[in-house]
Every structure is written in C-alpha cells, then in structure tokens.
Design brief:
CATH topology of one domain: Rossmann fold
Strand content: 15-25%
Bound molecules: nicotinamide-adenine-dinucleotide
Largest sheet: 7 strands, mixed
Distance between the termini: 50 Å
Shape: globular
Number of strands: 12
Length: about 425
C-alpha cells in the first residue's frame, strides 16, 4: 500500500533537542556541574541513521529512514522505546533518548537512555508491510541493540506485536531465542505481566502521590486527558478508579467534553469500535486544543511533545499538570506555568512506569523466571513512589519547581557514575 497523505501533527515546530538541552543546562547550573562532565552529558553518545528498503505489497521497493540514538552508556545498557511516526526526526529521537537517561536515573534503574524511530505512518501500511518494515529496521539497528547493550521497547504507534517481530528477527540472526533483546513483548514470548498498563499505572500512582502531598482529594478533582492511546487510556481508567472525575478526553480523531464524569471503560470500548473518542454518546465535541485549555483541575498530556508552548501556556486553567507523555511542555511554557503557580509533575517522573516494568521484564527474561502481576504492580508502585519522593524532596530542599528538583537528582546520579568510572582511556 502506498503512503499517500500524511496526517498533520498538531504540534508546534519547536525542535525538542535544544529544549532537552536547555532543561539539562538548568540542572547543570543548579548543581554547578563540572564543565567537562556537563559537556559530555549534554550530547548524545551514539547516533545511528539507517536508510533501508522495504518490499511493498504491490512488489515495489520503498525506502524508509530510521534512527537509534544512545544518549549515555555510563549507567549500564541503554533503554528506550521505538516510535513510528511520519514526523520523526533525528533531533526528536536525541531528545527522547536524553530524557530516558534522566528517567532511568530518577527511577534508580541501571540503564542509560536510548530511543529509536522510523519515519512512517504505520496506519497506511498493510500488516505484511508493517512486519517487513519492522524486521528490516531491527536488522539495521542490530549493530547497536541486544540484551547487554541496548534494549528497545514500545512507544508511539508501536505495539507488543512489533516488539515480538524485533525479538524474532534478532533471535533468527543469533540462532537461538533472545527474549531479553526487547521489552513490551507479548506474554507468549517472554513479555511481563503488567507491562502494557505500566506507563498509565505509573502516572496514576504519581497522581495519587502528589495529591496526598498537596492535601487534595482526588474525588474533588476534575481531569482532562490529551491523547487516548496506551498511556492516556490506562492513566484515565486508573485515575477514575482512584476517584478522579475525568471530564475531557482527546485523540487525533477528535475531542470530547462532558458535564458529568466519563465512564472511561466505555470510552475505551467506543474508541476500539470507532477508532476515536469522538462521538462518544452524551458528550460535546470540541477542538483538540480546547482539552488542554479546559476548565478542569488536573491536565494529563499523554500524546506527544510540544503540546503546551509559550503560545497556549497562559490559557491553561488546570492547577496541576501530570506529564504522562514525554516532553509535552516546552521550557518557555514551563517558565510561564511556574510563574502562574501551576504545579507540573515532570515526564521523567510521571511517565517512568513503562521503563520500570520494562526493567522488570528484562530481569525476568534474563532469569527465565516470571513474576505474578500483583508483585509487579507492587514493585512498580515502590519505584514510582521513590522517584516522586526524591524529586519532591529535592524541589523542597533546593526551592525549585519539581522538574528542576527531579533533574537535579537524576543528573547528579549520572554525573557521579561518570566520574566514578572515569574518562576512558
Ligand atoms: P499511542 O500511540 O498508544 O497513543 C498516542 C495517542 O495520542 C493516540 O490516542 C493519538 O490519537 C493521540 N494523539 C497524538 N497527537 C495528538 C494530539 N495532537 N492531540 C490529541 N491526541 C493526540 O502512544 P503511547 O504509547 O500512549 O505514548 C504516548 C506518550 O507517552 C508519548 O509521549 C510516549 O513517548 C509516552 N510514553 C510511552 C510509553 C510506552 O511504554 N508506551 C512509556 C512512557 C512514555
């Protein structure tokens, strides 16, 4: 199937890489980081660009571009998802890889950060084309990935099935099964219980935690969720179970607002049937951006980067923002939100649930010993709570916003590891 019109991505054209570096610089300034270590940590260590052919269903050959970036290999093997999206760029992947380094550090996971992506709209490919694209991309980046080196996982538009193809491709080359090569796999091939839900569950855990710290009762708080894929739908469902009142939801197909709390499981079923939250009975349709600016208490961006910018930060009405997506708020917007007294739980904390259970999956695969879901969820809650508490304590101690508090902890940990290892040779 040929790729025709690409869907528009409703994001600003801001480049996430200088934004990620700017966030790092703020922490480096605060920590008065050694100049050499600062220079080292603000760059991506390895960047692989691959241009590769895929045989399409009509027998034609199409070229695709993919990336795999390892931001920092000091703490251990690198870890990070793979994104399929028509607007993926190398700089976006570099930013996402850097954010993974800080996310793993604040969560106390023994990984450096990585990320991968392919410039493609997978919704315009047939299942066979998607599988062949995935297998060829996996083969191209096999020079970097592996259980001891760099372990990919799902991200936007990639699924457990895509992870299974990557695992199978690497295993075929090795001549034996290597399940620990990738996480977020189906259970049948060494996946972990609780992995699909983990990013949303982690965000919901952090939501409970911040409400307890701020002395706010979830049952009194209304919520808007932007993005209703894996992360957004799970976060909404679990937050609803915790008593939050979900009043607005958006995805690329549309946005809905309700006067009374939405039954999130029914919205999920509606999206499964129709492909979008749009048209859910009993709701009002609004423009996608209206969800960000809705008159609610808690905003959960769970879509893509650069959603809250200097352009709309002044119109946000939530008093609490939970960054379930990676990089949804630009540094310029962050400044405005901070000035306005809006509390932001940063992505490196609020969206650490996925990589945490990915870590558990990797450990289970290496040991060939699998845990019960109850144990996984309990351990996830422990990691998320420690990450949040570390960020909270640092923010209080240093009198800075939560993002800077979280960055101070994370950057210090990676800087300490760098100095402990020394500069080779
Ligand atoms: P997904 O592909 O399952 O879902 C993305 C959702 O966002 C879809 O519902 C899509 O319609 C919606 N969307 C995209 N652009 C939008 C826009 N402008 N307005 C409204 N909705 C929009 O992806 P996901 O895995 O849920 O990832 C979402 C975010 O969470 C990304 O930032 C990703 O990097 C991050 N994240 C994912 C994981 C994971 O394990 N999947 C872990 C941590 C963080």
């Amino acid at each position: 199937m040929a790729q025709t019109a690409l869907p528009r991505r409703a994001v600003s054209i801001e480049d996430p890489w200088p934004n990620a570096q700017r966030q790092f610089d703020a922490a480096a300034d605060l920590l008065d980081l050694d100049h050499g270590v600062r220079a080292l940590l603000r760059e991506a260590q390895r960047q692989l660009v691959v241009d590769f052919p895929v045989r399409m269903d009509d027998s034609s050959i199409r070229m695709f571009t993919g990336y795999r970036v390892q931001h920092n290999l000091v703490p251990g093997p690198t870890k990070g998802g793979i994104r399929y999206h028509p607007q993926v760029t190398l700089n976006e992947i570099k930013a996402l890889a850097m954010w993974m380094t800080w996310k793993c550090a604040i969560a106390g996971l023994p990984f450096g950060g990585a990320k991968g992506g392919v410039v493609v709209n997978p919704k315009l490919l047939s299942p066979g084309e998607l599988e062949r694209l995935t297998r060829r991309y996996a083969a191209e980046i096999s020079v970097l990935i592996g259980p001891e080196r760099d372990i990919p996982a799902p991200d936007v538009n990639t699924t457990p099935a895509v992870m299974a193809w990557i695992m199978d491709t690497i295993s075929m080359a090795e001549g034996y099964s290597v399940p620990a090569t990738v996480t977020g796999k189906p259970l049948a091939v060494g996946g972990s219980r609780g992995r699909v839900e983990a990013p949303g569950r982690g965000a919901a855990t952090v939501a409970r935690r911040i409400c307890a710290r701020l002395g706010r009762d979830p049952r009194q708080l209304s919520v808007a969720v932007q993005g209703f894929g894996n992360v957004g739908s799970t976060a909404a469902r679990l937050m609803e179970e915790d008593g939050f009142r979900i009043l607005a939801i958006s995805d690329t197909g549309g946005a809905i607002v309700s006067e009374t709390p939405l039954a999130v499981r029914e919205v999920i079923a509606h999206k499964q049937r129709t492909g979008s939250v749009a048209g859910f009975p009993g709701t009002r349709s609004v423009a996608g951006d209206a969800v960000l600016e809705a008159p609610i208490d808690v905003l959960v961006p769970a879509a893509l980067e650069n959603q809250i910018t200097a352009g709309n930060a002044g119109r946000i009405r939530a008093s609490l923002i939970l960054e379930a997506a990676n990089g949804p708020i630009t540094p310029a917007a962050d400044d405005i939100l901070n000035r306005r007294g809006i509390t932001v739980v940063p992505d490196i904390v609020a969206s650490a649930g996925g990589v945490t259970v990915s870590y558990f999956e990797w450990v289970q695969d290496l040991q060939s010993f699998f845990w019960e879901e109850k144990e996984i969820n309990a351990r996830l809650e422990g990691v998320m709570s420690s990450a949040f508490d570390a960020a909270w304590s640092a923010a209080q101690r240093l009198r800075v916003p939560l993002r800077l508090g979280a960055y101070a902890v994370a950057v210090q940990r990676v800087a300490d590891a760098t100095l402990a290892r020394g500069i080779y040779p």
